[in-house]
Specification:
Number of helices: 6
Radius of gyration: 16 Å
Largest sheet: none
Distance between the termini: 26 Å
């Protein structure tokens, strides 16, 4: 199917429901260092999932999100096994941002700007092995809520 507006791959067609944009309120509550917000794996992850799901089955394919989550889990496992090598792994962990941007540019129906922004924000919070584990746990909660929104 052709893009609705050539040159503007993320432009919304008139017949599509408006997508909820990630607002800074809940996104800025995602912090992995220091004292964790008691709702980080609950209402914050749920709000993220609701925003990313956006009520439109044609974007943010579960298989694509799962692919990013699986890679994040792989890096968390490596880091937890060898925390002293965290600094060596960090550039490759942050490379997930480039992979998400590529996926969005290749086909905005696979992942959209909201997902890319969420991934970028959570990866920017990763500073050491402990925050890497917290990031993985956040994405685990997110994926659970996301699955719920995609089935309803």
């Amino acid at each position: 199917m052709a893009q609705p507006y050539p040159g503007r791959p993320n432009a919304q067609r008139r017949d599509e429901a408006p997508r909820q944009q990630a607002d800074a309120g809940w996104l800025n509550r995602i912090r992995f260092g220091g004292k964790l917000d008691s709702e980080i794996f609950n209402s914050i992850a749920k709000q993220a999932a609701e925003t990313i799901a956006g009520g439109n089955d044609r974007v943010n394919k579960h298989s694509q999100l799962r692919r990013f989550y699986d890679e994040l889990c792989m890096w968390e496992e490596k880091v937890s096994r060898q925390p002293d090598k965290f600094d060596e792994h960090l550039p490759f962990i942050r490379m997930l941002n480039a992979k998400a941007a590529y996926a969005e540019g290749r086909n905005p129906k696979l992942v959209d700007r909201n997902f890319v922004n969420l991934l970028q924000h959570t990866l920017s919070e990763v500073k050491d092995a402990k925050t890497m584990t917290t990031c993985k746990l956040f994405w685990e909660a997110f994926m659970g809520f996301y699955k719920q929104y995609r089935q309803s």
